[in-house]
Amino acid sequence: MKEKKELITRDWLAIDRTKMANERTFLAYLRTVIVILGSGIALLKVPALDDLRGFGFILIGFSPLLLVFGVSRFLYVRRHIHMYYKETRK
C-alpha cells in the first residue's frame, strides 16, 4: 500500500504554475476566437471583399465551436488539477 506524502512548497508551486498555464491557454483560445470572429465580420462588412463573403460566414460559424472547445478543455484540465489536490490532501 502506498503511503501518501505531504506536499512541500515546491509541489504547491508546481500546481500553481499548472493552474496558471491552464488559464493562459484558455485566454489564448479566447483571443483566437475574438480574432476569427472579427475577421469574419470584417469580411462580411467590407464591400471590397465581396468575393470572400462565404469565407466570412465560415469564420463566424467556426468561432463558437472553437470557444466551446476552449472552455471544455479549460474545465477538463481544471477538474484534473482539483482531483490531484484531493488525492494529495488525504
UniProtKB/TrEMBL annotation:
A matching Pfam family: DUF202
Keyword Isomerase: no
Localization per Swiss-Prot or TrEMBL: Endomembrane system
Membrane topology: Multi-pass membrane protein
InterPro entries reported in the protein's UniProt record: DUF202
Main localisation: membrane
Name of the protein this chain belongs to: DUF202 domain-containing protein
Organism: Salinimicrobium gaetbulicola
